[in-house]
Design goal:
Blueprint (H helix, E strand, L loop, with lengths): L1 H31 L8 H27 L1 H8 L1 H62 L5 H6 L1 H128 L4 H15 L3 H6 L4 H117 L3 E3 L4 E8 L5 H21 L11 E2 L2 H11 L4 E8 L3 E2 L5 E9 L2 E3 L4 E7 L6 H22 L6 E3 L4 H12 L5 E7 L3 E2 L4 E9 L2 E5 L5
Helix pairs in contact: 1-2, 1-6, 2-6, 4-6, 4-9, 6-7, 6-9
Length: about 650
């Protein structure tokens, strides 16, 4: 309230000060008969008055808009607020539609979850039967030694594939157990979330009802606000009309003041002429020039005085006669001046009445602006409540989306398990010769001449085709047949990628699982910049051991875990090679390192260190290094 009174006082004081300055400037312009833009003095005074009124209006609006954010919002952002309200209503309808859709999808997700549970149970039973068959196959291994001797050439591939499959099977069993645990946890979470969702749905319905009530109240308040804004605009229009009338009256007042000043100046000139004629009769020529200038401004009789310049004595008589006329005119002007003074006083009274009316209207506008501000504050509070309710609704939707993502993850896990089982069945049948994502050929190229890019890619594809024939058709030496399949577009993409003069590692990989006798093998290419991944001597992984308290088996297990961690770090760093060479890649070197480690009586840190610069394409050569208190005790490198 105090701020409003201060604002009104500031507007009144500033308007009065500007009006006073404008009045003084207009008065001085009228007295000095100044001219702006080649206008007459009277028009110049009117222009000064108009500028003063415009300045008062501009300062009033600037103060109002500068101090009242609600007024700025009501004048400039009202349409935007209404548009946002319409958009909010549309979004509310859209949210209701999405809610119905989400509930339908949730019902479908529940049914799909039940189906996934059934598939998981079936997969678990299949894996158990598979494990039983695997045990039986191990028992039958002794009976198949004779056949294995005949197929010694295929044994290496089969053993490696069997080891990979056994590892994948163990990993799959672990993932299945984890998935089963996750599924049980998710099921319990689903039950809890289902109850919580029901409660939240009830709360959401209640919140939506409250939100609808708040929206209706907000609409009602906005309607009241529109009425108040309309009344305010009407009052502002009336105020503008009164200000315009005031400016017009002030302009007329300035005009009358200018005329009064002009008459007073003419009166002073006439009195001066009379005294000059009586006292300075000898200086008629100078008086004539001065009187001619005054007659040009007041009577327009300069031509007559110029025609009578030759007869000075006649001019004197004529001037005396004119003096009598001017005295009569002076009396008439004084009478007119008295009438103008009366009009001026009457206009002052009217201006005072108008000012009091304007002040009263300004007070009413300020009160209505305050009421509008209170309504805006109420609407803002209601909007905050609605925003909080909408945030709660979005959190519920986010939780529901998380459940859907978990269900999708379980479905993908089931699909992967089924693919692993199919691959294992094919492997047990002895027919699977190429695995999905198996590397057929790897090459490092640097293309200096762009024309040589296609030749390099073709050479890699020829090598990959040869490897595919050797795996799918053992014994077939006709390597001119086209077995691998890759799209020309992908080949062009490879060429465009590698023709910039940098080193690239190119791998040709199998796109699927293929059995013996396949006529076509779909492949794809992986192109990676061949950059430095590890510098020579860089520590890749490390672990601490205490050989005095650990058994031989525990030491070997710790070293295996360290090597596995190194492989994980190497793959994560972007190295494409599948295997890590420790030392000279001999088992004796690794066992000798473990024996040396076993002889230590204190704690020793074992590190895996890059023995050479390692690039993306490989190879990966590492050394095991035993370090104690920062000193290297021994390592697996040949020169240790």
């Amino acid at each position: 309230m105090t701020t409003g009174w201060i604002l009104i006082a500031a507007i009144l004081v500033l308007g009065g000060a500007i009006a006073s300055v404008g009045d003084r400037v207009g008065t001085k312009v009228g007295k000095s008969r100044l001219s702006l833009f080649n206008l007459r003095p009277r028009k110049t005074a009117i222009l000064i008055t108009v500028l003063t009124g415009s300045l008062i209006s501009a300062s009033t609006l600037a103060i109002l808009f500068g101090t009242s954010e609600q007024l700025r919002t009501g004048v400039f952002k009202l349409e935007k607020i209404q548009k946002n309200l319409r958009n909010a209503r549309k979004e509310l309808e859209k949210t209701k539609t999405q809610k119905s859709k989400v509930e339908t999808e949730l019902t479908q997700a529940k049914s799909q979850q039940a189906e996934a549970q059934q598939k998981l149970d079936a997969t678990n039973q299949s894996l158990q039967s598979t494990l039983a068959k695997l045990s039986e196959a191990t028992a039958n291994q002794a009976r198949t030694e004779t056949q294995l001797k005949q197929t010694q050439g295929e044994l290496n591939n089969t053993n490696s594939q069997l080891n990979q499959t056994q590892g994948k099977l163990n990993q799959t069993q672990n993932e299945l157990n984890q998935t089963q645990g996750q599924l049980n946890a998710v099921s319990s979470q689903v039950m809890a979330l289902r109850d919580e969702r029901q409660k939240l749905i009830e709360q959401r319905d209640q919140l939506q009802a409250e939100r609808q009530n708040l929206i209706e109240q907000r609409n009602q308040l906005q309607a009241e606000r529109q009425n108040l804004i309309g009344q305010r605009n009407q009052l502002q229009a009336e105020r503008a009309t009164l200000i315009e009338q005031r400016d017009k009256l002030q302009a007329e007042r300035q005009n009358l003041i200018g005329q009064r000043n002009q008459l007073q100046a003419e009166r002073q000139n006439l009195i001066g002429q009379r005294n000059q004629l009586q006292a300075e009769r000898q200086d008629l020529l100078g008086q004539r020039n001065q009187l001619q200038a005054e007659r040009q401004d007041l009577l327009g009789q300069r031509n007559q005085l110029q025609a009578e310049r030759q007869d000075l004595l006649g001019q004197r008589d004529q001037l005396q006669a004119e003096r009598q006329d001017l005295l009569g005119q002076r009396d008439q002007l004084q009478q007119e001046r008295a009438a103008l003074v009366g009009q001026r006083d009457r206009l002052k009274n009217e201006i005072g009445n108008f000012k009091s009316q304007i002040a009263q209207r300004d007070q009413e506008i300020a009160a209505q602006d305050q009421a509008i501000a209170q309504l805006d504050q109420t609407i803002s509070q209601r909007d905050q409540v609605i925003a909080q309710r909408e945030t709660s609704l979005k959190q519920l939707e986010s939780q529901q989306k998380d459940l859907e993502n978990k269900q999708a993850y379980l479905q993908r896990a089931v699909k992967i398990l089924e693919e692993y089982y199919q691959d294992y069945q094919a492997l047990r049948g002895g027919n699977l010769v190429l695995f999905r994502n198996q590397v057929l050929v790897t090459g490092v190229v640097r293309i200096v001449d762009p024309k040589a890019a296609r030749q390099a890619v073709d050479q890699l594809l020829v090598t990959a085709n040869k490897v595919a024939i050797e795996n799918t058709r053992p014994g077939d030496k006709n390597f001119n047949q086209q077995v691998i399949q890759i799209s020309p577009k992908e080949v062009d993409q490879i060429i465009d990628r590698i023709d910039d003069g940098r080193d690239y590692a190119i791998r040709i990989l199998s796109a699927g699982n293929y059995i013996r006798g396949e006529s076509a093998v779909q492949v794809f290419a992986d192109v990676t910049p061949n950059r430095v991944v590890f510098q020579a001597g860089e520590v890749v992984a490390a672990t601490s051991t205490n050989p005095s308290t650990m058994t031989q088996e525990q030491l070997e297990q710790r070293i295996e875990q360290l090597i596995a961690a190194s492989q994980f770090r190497v793959r994560r760093a972007g190295v494409l090679a599948d295997k890590i060479q420790i030392g000279d890649a001999r088992v004796e070197t690794l066992m000798r390192f473990i024996e040396q480690l076993k002889q230590s009586e204190t704690s020793v840190e074992v590190q895996v260190v890059a023995s050479d610069v390692t690039y993306t394409a490989g190879p990966v050569k590492m050394d095991l290094v035993a370090v104690q208190k920062g000193q290297i005790l021994f390592r697996t490198s040949p020169d240790s």
